[in-house]
């Protein structure tokens, strides 16, 4: 339940099924474990954007930018 890779796969599956609440819940369930993982944060930002939770998405992109100040994708997305 705390494996960010497994949750990423599950949230992608939920997205393909169109289940926004499930995708969001899955990402939020392991957010504490992935908050220092830029790739997880990028995925979380995507899920939050898809579910319309834009403040959460922006917060993820800001964390990515703090972890990797030269990340152009984070800069563009914010």
Search tags:
78 residues
Describe the structure concisely:
With 78 residues, the chain is mostly helical. Helices cover 78% and strands 0% of the residues.
Question: How many β-strand stretches?
Answer: 0
Strand count, sense and barrel status of the largest sheet are:
none
Q: Radius of gyration over alpha carbons?
A: 12 Å
Shape summary:
globular
Overall mean confidence score, pLDDT? 95
Percent of residues in β-strands: under 5%
Q: What structural class do helix, strand and pairing data support?
A: mainly alpha
Q: Helicity, in percent? A: over 70%
- The termini sit apart by 29 Å
What are the secondary-structure elements, in order, as H or E? HHHHHH
Low-confidence stretches: none
How many helices in DSSP terms? 6
SSE map:
Blueprint: H1 4-17, H2 20-29, H3 31-34, H4 38-50, H5 54-67, H6 72-77
Helix pairs in contact: 1-2, 1-4, 2-4, 4-5
Describe this structure in words.
With 78 residues, this protein is mostly helical. The model has no long low-confidence stretch (mean pLDDT 95). The relative contact order is 0.14. Helix 1 (4-17) runs parallel beside helix 4 (38-50), helix 2 runs antiparallel to helix 4 and helix 4 runs antiparallel to helix 5. The protein is 78% helix and 0% strand. The chain is globular and about 35 Å long. The protein has helices at residues 4-17, 20-29, 31-34, 38-50, 54-67, 72-77.
């Amino acid at each position: 339940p705390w494996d960010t890779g497994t949750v990423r796969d599950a949230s992608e599956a939920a997205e393909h099924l169109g289940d926004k609440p499930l995708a969001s819940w899955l990402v939020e369930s392991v957010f504490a474990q992935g908050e220092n993982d830029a790739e997880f944060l990028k995925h979380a930002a995507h899920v939050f954007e898809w579910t319309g939770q834009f403040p959460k998405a922006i917060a993820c992109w800001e964390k990515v930018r703090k972890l990797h100040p030269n990340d152009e994708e984070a800069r563009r997305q914010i």
